[in-house]
Amino acid sequence: AGDPAAGEGKVAACAACHGSDGNATAPIYPNLAGQNVAYLENALKAYRAGERGGGMSMMMTPQAQSLSDEDIADIAAYYGSLTP
Amino acid sequence: AGDPAAGEGKVAACAACHGSDGNATAPIYPNLAGQNVAYLENALKAYRAGERGGGMSMMMTPQAQSLSDEDIADIAAYYGSLTP
After folding, report:
1. Which residues 6-65 of B have a C-beta within 8 angstroms of A?
2. Architecture of domain A4-81 in CATH?
């Protein structure tokens, strides 16, 4: 399972759109605070694999491709731990 | 813009996984309560266009393909109106 404390140190890029508190900086982006961790991991892995097109995938695919499995677990754990 | 009241009458299928209150019925599904409406619309349209693979897209693509633009706007407005 991911480590939310480690994840907090890995979300600098994410936070530009999703906020460091998981509240998106614009309505076109999803809020992530309190989101289900399993869903967040699967979504990031789908972006990383190039499976998720449309929407903001031109941004998310390369971002996710810079992440290891451990990074994904940590980041998902961090955002999932926040209160919406 | 979508009509949340109309959307409430269109989420019977969505609710099986995302809950009628926007709280997912299992951690593999995303919570939708209070999610940003523009994001929800774009995500549904990407599924409908077959652009979003991976994750639960085998379920979401056909579901979204049954929705009109108005349905998508209403459903997004409904879930976005709920408190997380």
Report:
1. 24, 27-31, 33-39, 42-43, 45-47, 49, 51-57
2. Orthogonal Bundle (1.10)
